[in-house]
Design a protein that fits this description.
DNA-binding; Multidrug-efflux Transporter Regulator, Chain: A, Domain 2; 64% helix; mainly alpha; homodimer
DNA sequence: CTTGACCTTGACGTTACGTCAACGTCTAGC
DNA sequence: GCTAGACGTTGACGTAACGTCAAGGTCAAG
């Protein structure tokens, strides 16, 4: 009647280590334990093991298997929840496959591995997380896939726009323009329009960036030396921030 | 120039713990370590971190990221291999989704959770692993999905065929038939035809089961009390085994 | 009684960090 | 100079589900 641990393992296509594990976590105690410590399993235990292995084969975690077999949870409910997780995982995988595929073709076209020079050191997507954490913009899930998806020409166009905008800001600041001036406000308008065109920006799609996000970015332009450097120093960055603030308060 | 660990973490959207981990495994040593043990990172380290995070985001394991960044492996090659793994995982997930979906509908139709009574306790699919291990049949990947996919009518038909075949074996054995007799050999032929019809059987699809597999099964009918019981004891099982052996040697 | 097969518990390794714990360091304000 | 509080350090455990030794006890056959 009673089988040894290895016999049971072979019969069910698993290992004795697994059975000991299931005993250790209380999932499948042996039907009998001899004085020597030897584990013995009867037919009921075999049936339970079959069920465990089937559910595990469907991808359920062991604690969940246990809840189902001990009738603490409806099998159908558990499986439905599991199905949702599986679909999430499928989506995640699909996105990852797309990203990897895209990166491979990009590399084969001679693109550098990274877009670390994208935006000429002015990569907002790399700082959105920080803006969000420090100034509480709405949550979003950015990424640089959209940038890598652009054609070389589009990228050049984009970079040129960024460079021009930055140069205009610097020029206005050096000239002593005030943040509230018409010129500064026009730059702020262009800046916001540009921000809104970046996928991942809070407000992207509505035509204008979220107010809190713009205010947060402005603060960071000043606070972060990398951004400040882009505008030729903290002085200029402060000017940009103030101009953006005025614009945001009045228009966003 | 040099940033503290937490600043770098915030800038790149990760955590200081992660940076310490990358230091510990030699993936990203700080550019400078003060006498106090404090870690400081320069711009080069930031760039490397960006690359690490991008590759990690694509799903590469850290040792692989390290090999790529240290130019020990071509990025495209690594990504292609990774893509293969991702596709395998996608396939696995698809199959699992199908299995879970099927199980859910089966449960809703009132089927018992398990098919542990399938084949009336004569489930070859449950023992194929053992046959393979002990007698070296070809590798295969069985499963009981095909059985669960059968309609109720099909299952009854199937069970009846199995029962009839078993009864015929028992009858022949009890009558004292010899393994090499025409009657026994005809039963062996039917038995092999039946085996070949089971998806997962080595040789399934060729119309006849693999010779080694049949020989192995015959041994198991005798060796395993569960199978032997199906034939009414070890005596009868031995008869079945011998008849199968004769048939297999002459026809497979 | 021996030999070999099989059993036991214990413990470490796997992946990429999260999360304390205990304790040293830096900086700003008084 | 002192102190509070923020930030840094190393060390260690936990995660999921076992695989894989290691050291040593048990069982069945010859």
């Amino acid at each position: 009647m009673d089988r040894t641990i290895h016999d049971v393992a072979r019969l069910c296509g698993t290992t004795s280590r697994t059975l000991r594990h299931y005993d250790a976590i209380g999932l499948l105690p042996p039907s009998r334990v001899a004085g020597t410590g030897y584990r013995y399993y009867d037919d009921d235990a075999l049936v339970r093991l079959q069920r465990i292995l089937l559910l595990r084969g469907l991808g359920l975690a062991l604690p969940e298997v246990q809840r189902v077999l001990d009738s603490e949870q409806d099998p159908v409910t558990a499986l439905r929840a599991h199905l949702d997780r599986l679909r999430d995982e499928q989506n995640r995988l699909s996105r990852q496959v797309a990203s990897v595929t895209w990166t491979i073709t990009a590399l084969e076209n001679g693109d550098p591995l990274m877009a670390e020079t994208m935006f000429d050191g002015f990569d907002h997507t790399r700082y959105q997380d920080e803006v969000e954490q420090r100034w509480g913009a709405a949550a979003y899930a950015p990424g640089d896939a959209w940038w890598r998806a652009l054609s070389a020409v589009d990228r050049e166009t984009w970079k040129r726009r960024v460079t021009e905008l930055g140069a205009a800001w610097v020029a206005a600041a050096e000239r002593g323009t005030t943040p509230g001036s018409a010129e500064a406000q026009d730059l702020a308008r262009r800046h916001c329009a540009w921000l809104a065109s970046i996928p991942g920006t809070p407000g992207h799609g509505t035509g204008r960036p979220a107010k809190e996000y713009v205010l947060g970015l402005g603060e960071m332009y000043v606070a972060d030396p990398r951004f400040a450097a882009h505008y030729g120093g903290e002085q200029n960055a402060t000017f940009v921030r103030d101009a953006l603030r005025v614009y945001a308060e009045g228009n966003l």
